[in-house]
């Protein structure tokens, strides 16, 4: 029986409350020892305003989960690594590619584990889809990630600011699945629709291909009301695979495949514990590379102002 990992959490906001804190609480691999948040609180453990205070006062701390928006994560991650802590990064792992590279190198030098988490890869349909596709010739891929920003991100200003990524905040989840289940691909063109009063796109139309010339098309849109769509459809020579509901449902030629229940964050925390105990890191930048390429290579179209 190994001792639980003594973990602290930074940024008590939506995802910390919805997933991280309940999953840490339920896992035998962890003991939550403190949280750090400027506004959020969590009962039952010491609450600090900053990570620096938490590190100074919690001598036995071994790891931290960083649940702030991407623009705020680098500084905290570097401080945690330099303090000798293992670091769990929410997605996306940073606001730039280079900062995550720097963290990876810092973690290697300090001998701590760095985990760039991609929760959608732990959706129940993703590994079966990857396995089924690994032996098939793919003809085309169509991704539709369309949701209502007012429902999912009310009042979140950071998401509209530079580095917040706009519709790529959910869209990068689709990219995290696509980069896991498909052969390597790259962006050939994109159109980003940016509200005239914001810095980040509300919609994106992305075109990719791979070494075999396979057409891969993705539509991200935050203006969808009513039923929400998080689908990846892959046409192969042996039939059609559809991952829907963000990877929670898998069909092959229209037939539902039996899957275990959703447990994305349990899967992430199991993976982080395994990394910490084996002294390894897991930092896959591919989803962020595709998002960055869309900002680098895409055309911008100004669209009507967005107000909450
Ligand atoms: P959030 O509730 O808006 O922010 C999380 C916490 O980060 C806040 O409570 C705040 O804590 C801190 N924070 C906010 N803005 C900050 C800033 N500018 N500088 C420093 N700290 C700031 O966001 P969230 O929805 O939980 O998302 C956080 C991260 O988790 C994002 O990267 C997102 O992509 C990812 N994520 C979110 C969801 C979801 O369903 N919302 C799902 C999966 C992953 P204090 O002010 O108390 O310090």
TrEMBL record:
<dbReference type="Pfam" id="PF01408">
    <property type="entry name" value="GFO_IDH_MocA"/>
</dbReference>
<dbReference type="InterPro" id="IPR036291">
    <property type="entry name" value="NAD(P)-bd_dom_sf"/>
</dbReference>
<feature type="domain" description="Gfo/Idh/MocA-like oxidoreductase N-terminal">
    <location>
        <begin position="5"/>
        <end position="115"/>
    </location>
</feature>
<dbReference type="InterPro" id="IPR050463">
    <property type="entry name" value="Gfo/Idh/MocA_oxidrdct_glycsds"/>
</dbReference>
<dbReference type="InterPro" id="IPR000683">
    <property type="entry name" value="Gfo/Idh/MocA-like_OxRdtase_N"/>
</dbReference>
<protein>
    <submittedName>
        <fullName>D-galactose 1-dehydrogenase</fullName>
    </submittedName>
</protein>
<dbReference type="GO" id="GO:0000166">
    <property type="term" value="F:nucleotide binding"/>
</dbReference>
């Amino acid at each position: 029986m190994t001792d639980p990992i003594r973990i602290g959490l930074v940024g008590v906001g939506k995802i910390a409350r919805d997933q991280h804190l309940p999953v840490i609480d339920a896992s035998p691999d962890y003991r939550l020892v403190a949280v750090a948040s400027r506004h959020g609180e969590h009962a039952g453990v010491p609450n600090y305003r900053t990570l620096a205070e938490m590190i100074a006062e919690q001598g036995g701390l071994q790891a931290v989960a960083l649940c702030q928006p991407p623009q705020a994560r680098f500084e905290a991650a570097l401080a945690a690594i330099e303090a000798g802590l293992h670091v769990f990064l929410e997605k996306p792992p940073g606001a730039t590619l280079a900062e995550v590279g720097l963290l990876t190198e810092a973690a290697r030098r300090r001998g701590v584990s760095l985990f760039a988490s991609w929760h959608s890869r732990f959706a129940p349909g993703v590994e079966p889809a990857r396995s089924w596709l690994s032996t098939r010739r793919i003809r085309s891929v169509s991704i539709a990630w369309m949701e209502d920003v007012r429902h999912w991100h009310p009042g979140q200003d950071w998401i509209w600011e530079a580095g917040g990524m706009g519709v790529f905040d959910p869209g990068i989840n689709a990219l995290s699945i696509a980069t896991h289940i498909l052969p390597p691909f790259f962006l050939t063109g994109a159109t980003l629709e940016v509200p005239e009063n914001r810095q980040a796109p509300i919609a994106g139309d992305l075109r990719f291909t791979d070494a075999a010339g396979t057409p891969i098309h993705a539509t991200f849109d935050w203006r969808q009301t009513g039923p929400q769509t998080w689908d990846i459809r892959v046409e192969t020579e042996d039939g059609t695979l559809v991952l829907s509901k963000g990877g929670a449902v898998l069909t092959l030629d229209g037939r539902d495949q039996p899957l275990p229940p959703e447990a994305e964050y349990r899967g992430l925390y199991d993976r982080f514990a395994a990394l910490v105990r084996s002294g390894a890191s897991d930092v896959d930048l591919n989803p962020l590379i595709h998002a960055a390429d869309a900002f680098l290579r895409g055309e911008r179209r100004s669209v009507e102002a967005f107000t909450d």
